[in-house]
Amino acid sequence: MPAITYLGSLTFAVIFCLSTLIINNDMLHQFAISTIISLTLGASITQIIKKKANRTRPFLLLEDLYIKKIGIDDYSFPSGHTCAAFSIATMSGLYFPFLSIYVIPLSSLVGISRMYLGVHYPTDVVIGMLIGAISSFITFNLLLLI
User: How many domains, in total, are found in the chain?
Assistant: First the structure.
């Protein structure tokens, strides 16, 4: 699960976006820029909510919860990793619909891994999913207007 959880990390998102930017293809460049905007929007919303909600992480409150120590910030709600995973997955599905069957389940596994590792509650993950997906839909549709 720790390997899966890092598919929603900042490191993975940066490597993913830079990889698509260096390929000499106009559609991939547009996809990369859209994904970067969506990730930025989603992360901004997530951080604002985290600081307002101040929700303590499950492993700090639940006794006998076995977790692997992974890098985390202070607050639980909503899940930033899940938001990032769904931003990338949703944008991938919007640009390349045939990938949806692979990327949506994979991003769902990121959310499941966050709960399994004891760093998020189910509601943290669901709201992270929604923020990530909505950020991508907004970004995709706004860029169509330009």
Answer: 1
